[in-house]
Design a protein that fits this description.
By secondary structure, the chain is of the alpha+beta class. The protein folds into three domains: about 20-240, PAS domain (Beta-Lactamase); about 240-335, Helix Hairpins (Orthogonal Bundle), CATH 1.10.287; about 340-495, Histidine kinase-like ATPase, C-terminal domain (Heat Shock Protein 90, 2-Layer Sandwich), CATH 3.30.565.10. About 55% of the residues lie in helices and about 20% in strands. It is built from eleven helices and twelve strands. α2 packs antiparallel against α3 (about 85-95), α6 runs antiparallel to α7 and α8 (about 350-365) runs parallel beside α9 (about 385-400). The longest helix has about 55 residues, at about 20-75.
Length: about 500
């Protein structure tokens, strides 16, 4: 029982998934766009036919009624209804249009009814009154399917006038009665029903054709997207490693372009990750190898002199310090790779922060007789993470000292505008070769590996610096000329704002 319920639910879910698919939506849109106009056209045609048929019927009956009304007036029918000819014409008009004719005199009395049931009765209605005033009325009742109209019965009156002994005459038409005619429109309704039936059959056949065309069209239109999905799955499953290309539509080109860019980015990240692991392994292995060699050398010798023993142990301690520095830098880098939500943003006086950094680093500079100069153009207060920014600026100044020549200088300049503050670290040291400038922020990259190892560099300092600056929504730029010195320019917003 539970298995049946699960199968039923899966079936429903699969159908719901299909409803949410692009193919179904294209299918539905094509059907709606194709079917709705046919409904409107069908209604419009039937409505137009009904209006046209009713209009023709009214015009036809009005002409017949006008002729008959003239006969009634000319033969003084309202005073004498015994004329068999006129009565026959009234019955003929009634039978011809499956209707009813009432002849009403000036006193609103019915003098003739083709149904024979209202003669002698009085009829006072708006239509009859308006007709006596000279306004013919034609009304169509679609619900009861009949047309009601009025036609005036007129006689010609000769009004005699005397003037100067000469008798003059003037003829006028006077309304003496009204014909109230009711005409059935059953045949029009029957024709409409026949047309509606034929239209329904035609519409049903068109619907079948539209459904088939919609299904085929939806499959054709969605096929490129299915190719995109299949290509992406092939890449995901590892069957394809190259960039994919499905250029049927502009939209698929955009999707594929974005996916290929993402794929290239992932490959670059994977290569960078592999290179990083390889570099980490190498950097961590080197001090351990050195310590192993030094320890094995001590163990291989007997009666090792104290001086040599101390020298080896000093070298081992140096290698341990180097290992420890690499590990600390790696930990700093990992912290920098975390999201910006880990930033401890607070308002910091940048002038005081730089002065404190330079105070800690001046003893190192003094060992090489390097002059450390600080120039502040204005007081700067900004919203930053003090620890991470201190680490970034310290790395730049420390590198400027370590990779400088003796008796050189390091100049730090602080400035700001209404949006950003800038820190410029300038030295007159060995500089950076042109081919190395684009790589200096890469992890474990060192311009001069032998010199870097000699001064204890790990190749992670500038990578840590760049990460810290980017976390502050800032930017870092380098200008350098080999043998003449290097300048780093750091630009950071005064106000930190989270990404919206």
């Amino acid at each position: 029982m539970r298995a049946d319920i699960r199968a039923f639910l899966k079936k429903i879910l699969s159908r719901l998934t299909f409803v949410n698919s692009l193919r179904f939506r294209i299918f539905a849109i094509v059907i709606i766009v194709s079917y709705v106009p046919t409904l409107i056209m069908r209604y419009g045609i039937l409505q137009n036919y009904e209006e046209r048929a009713v209009s023709l019927r009214i015009s036809e009956v009005e002409n017949q009624a006008m002729i008959l009304a003239n006969h009634l007036g000319a033969n003084n029918y309202l005073q004498d209804t015994s004329s068999e000819t006129i009565n026959a014409e009234l019955v003929q008009l009634s039978n011809l249009y499956d209707g009813r004719v009432l002849v009403i005199d000036q006193n609103f009395n019915v003098v003739r009814d083709t149904y024979g049931i209202s003669e002698g009765k009085t009829i006072i209605s708006e239509e009859v009154i308006r007709c006596f005033k000279g306004n013919n009325v034609s009304n169509y009742d679609g619900n009861n399917r009949f047309i009601e109209m009025t036609t005036p019965i007129t006689v010609t009156v000769n009004n005699g006038e005397k003037g100067g002994g000469i008798s003059e005459g003037k003829e006028n038409n006077r309304i003496v009665g009204v014909m109230l005619i009711s005409v059935s429109t059953d045949n029009i309704t029957t024709n409409i029903a026949v047309l509606d039936g034929k239209a329904s059959i035609l519409q049903f056949l068109m619907m079948i054709l539209v459904v088939a065309l919609s299904w085929i069209t939806s499959r054709i239109l969605v096929k490129p997207f299915e190719q995109v999905t299949a290509a992406i799955r092939a890449v995901k499953d590892g069957f394809e490693a190259e960039a994919i290309d499905v250029s049927d539509y502009l939209e698929t080109e955009h999707i594929i372009t974005a996916f290929n860019e993402l794929l290239n980015r992932m490959r670059a990240l994977d290569e960078s990750r592999q290179e990083f692991v390889s570099n980490v392994s190498h950097e961590l292995k080197t001090p351990i190898t050195s310590m192993k060699v030094l320890a094995d050398s001590l163990n291989a010798q007997e009666d090792v002199p104290v001086e040599l023993y101390k020298e080896f142990m000093t070298d081992i301690a140096d290698e341990i310090d180097r290992e420890n520095k690499i590990i600390n830098d790696l930990l700093s880098l990992v912290k920098m790779d975390k999201t910006a939500a880990d930033l401890n943003i607070e308002t910091v006086n940048i002038n005081e922060l730089i002065e404190l950094i330079l105070k800690r680093l001046r003893p190192i500079a003094g060992q090489k007789d390097i002059d450390v100069i600080y120039e502040s153009n204005r007081d700067v207060t900004a919203e930053v993470d003090e620890v991470k920014l201190t680490l970034a600026i310290s790395n730049l100044v420390e590198n400027a000292i370590k990779y400088n020549e003796e008796h050189g200088y390091v100049k730090v300049t602080l400035d700001a505008d209404h949006r950003f503050f800038t820190v410029v670290v300038e030295d007159n040291g060995m500089g950076i070769p042109e081919e190395s400038k684009e790589h200096i922020f890469e992890r474990f990259y060192r311009v001069d590996k032998s010199h870097s190892r000699k001064i204890g560099g790990t190749g992670l300092g500038l990578s840590i610096t760049r990460s810290a600056i980017l976390m502050h929504r800032g930017a870092i730029r380098v200008e350098s000329e080999e043998g003449k010195g290097t300048t780093f320019l750091v630009k950071i917003p005064l106000t930190y704002a989270l990404k919206g």
